[in-house]
Each structure stands twice: as structure tokens, then as C-alpha cells.
Amino acid sequence: MHVAFLIPDCHIPYHDRKAYALALKVAKAIHDGEFQNLELKEIVILGDYADFYAVNSHGKHPQMNQLLSEEIDFVNQELNLIDEMFCGVDKTFIFGNHEQRLERFVENYCPTLFGLTSCINLFEFHRRRNWTLCDYGPKQLHRILGSQLYARHEPFSMSSAMASVKKSMINLVYGHVHRAEEATITGALNSYTNFSVGWLGDVRKSQVFGYTKTPPNWQLGFGVVYVNPKTRQFSFDKIMIQSDYTCFFAGRIFEG
Fold this sequence. Notes:
Radius of gyration: 18 Å
Structural class: alpha/beta
Oligomer: single chain
Strand content: 25-35%
Number of strands: 13
Shape: globular
């Protein structure tokens, strides 16, 4: 069975490092052949891998002095780690609205640099192998391992997975909402499912994520998609990370 590993919103460098490391630990176990009949074929980053807090348009907390160059260095360190751990595996980077922050900042404050400074350049994708890049925008879609499951950063409706699946009428996994949710509709001929797998940010970083008026309904987690290479049929697991930084996958307990 072919496997695609789903990495949801991390907001590096404001990610939950233990949760992120735990997710990569599971991906590495799959890659190393620790599970019979599972072959890691693709890693899909679902957007907002970076935060770009330094160029956000909402204002900065007075205690925050993170430089843009430092944020970029953190992201490149983590991308380097993925390249080292999963050499030869196809990788897809789906750009999210937080990556879009950089382009919006350049457009608004230094348009002369538009096209010269971009995530593609700053994240050094010119030297990275086996990466596919998916631009942020309304037509953003990435087909996972030739199946009928697509991925993008944002759902087709922000209110719920059910609203998204009714609007999209495709099978879709998305990021952005930081929740683990799922909804399916069944018609006369086909069924469609939309789902998300949570996030890997650190909610304790209140200077960055403390904009919600009530405690956020966000769950730490990641996802695994299974695709039959003969039929292209797919299934998936939403893997939730527990409060003690453990998770369950394929009958095993993984510890962070």
C-alpha cells in the first residue's frame, strides 16, 4: 500500500516542537519499513508551514522581536531535516495564507522587490530535490498519489467540513482550520469526503495565537493517506496527538 504523509499547519518557528517531532517519528517509521505493506511515497505539507509573524498585517505583540531572517532560518532548518530524513521521497509544499503574508507585505510596502523576494527563493527550493510546489489561490489543488483525493490549504467553506464538501463536491484534505474534522455526503452515484487533521502549532505561544476570544478548538495531529497502487482507491487516518505527547498508529504507541 502506498502512503502519503500529511503535515498540517506548523507555523514555524511557533510550532509545537514535541508534537512536530512525534509526527516525523511516525513518518520515519513508515519510511524505514517498520510496517509491513506500507511504503511512504509522498509527504504533503498542507500550508502555513511558516508563520511569517514578522510581516503580519495585524500588528505585533510588544514582547515579540523575532526577525524575519530568523523565521526563515528556522523554516530552512526543518526543510533540511525533511530532505535528510526522507531522501528520494516525493514531497509537496502547498502554500498557505501565512506564506502569502510575505508576498502581500512586499506588494504593500516594497513593490520594487516584487518577484525578487519570494518563499521559493527564501526556502531554497532551487536546490531541493523531489519537491512539487502548489501556489496559494482559489484554484489550488494537488492530487495525492493519483487517487481521487485532493489537497489544498483552505477548505471550500470555513464553517465546517460538511459545508466544504457540499461546496467542493470532491474528496479533499485541507489545513488552515487547526481542527480535526470530517464530513461525507453520498449522492446517487458517488460519495465525497472532506477532512482536516488538526495542526502542529504551539497554542501556548499566546503572543502569536492569542487572538481568539475563547479557548481555541484546535487539536494537535497529522494524517496518513493510503492508496492502492492498482486501483487508486484511498483511505485515511487522522492521527491525534495526546496531551502527554503520545499517539497511536497501526497498533503501536509512539512517544514524543
